[in-house]
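We treat protein structure as text, and this decision shapes the records that our systems exchange. Because each token names a local backbone shape, the row as a whole describes the fold. An entry from our holdings is shown next, in its original layout:
>
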Amino acid sequence: MVVGVQYLRAIAAALVVFVHLQEQLQRAGHSIPLALYGSAGVDIFFVISGFVMWHTSQDHHRTLDFYYRRIIRIVPLYWALTSVVVAMLLWTPSLVRSGSFDWAHVVTSYLFLPMAHPVATEAMFPVLVPGWTLNYEMFFYLIFGLALLLPRAQRLAALCVAFGALTVAYFLVPRGTTAAAFYTDPIILEFLLGILLGALCGKGAKLSGKAATLLIVAGAALILCRFDVHRFLRDGIGAAMIVYGAVLFEMGRPVRRRPALMLLGDASYSLYLSHALVLSGLFQIMNRIVPVGTIPGAIVYLLVAVAGSVAAAILLYRIVEKPALLYLKRRGPPDGKAP
């Protein structure tokens, strides 16, 4: 089951990279067809997160151990890259075109608390913009960890009630850049869809190759149709169909390991967090060498940006993310197992 999830992580991270690559190219008057559909990579990550948490935590009953394992997995790299952006905002603000230093915003960014961005005030982005998804992840971990306090037989029902109640509250709280609107957004149901997949796998559910393929294709089609509905009803359900198809297919048969995709899956977190910085930096450098506004310049930038983002992510994974995780695992509870 690990193989399919790793592949999906790699694909989801690549999709998000193309979204921000499109934003860079738009500054030079170009666009990448279908690039904006890549935002569904985030939804795939959320579904995978719910699935992995359920699948890996059923034998763990101590909430504090669960919290420690998630913190050491998420926090070190995020704080390191956030600190890079903060340093740039303080000493080289001209390099951060979409940012502005604000102490309250910096503090809430480190604490994974949503706050309106000082420049893009209509969005609740942290200092490291892709980290907005981690605010949801940490909220999900908080709820999931509390569910671990319950007997195993009651956890799924409790999680369904909790996420259901939050979604109902979405229709009761005022819209806008508020914490209440952020935490009750139906996008949080994507974690629940992942949890339900984990529960299905625990009961031995699986799909034939044809059924899994149809489910994956239908999920991709739903995302591509761009119906004018809430993101969860389009990208969220579409992403869940893709993840369900891939995972339930693997439940019935082994999936061949592709080393390149497995490595990219391992480095997907590093790629997700670092790519915006890499793309921006490369744009500013490349634009001085071969103007990105020209077709040849745009093509060169596209190739260099993708290769550079992947290379930087793998390097970051190997020299920062993985060593930090292994070190903190050794320093933590003796039976801790970071999923």
User: Anything to note?
Assistant: The chain has one domain: 2-331. The chain has a mean pLDDT of 92. The longest helix spans residues 295-331. DSSP finds 13 helices and no strands in the chain.
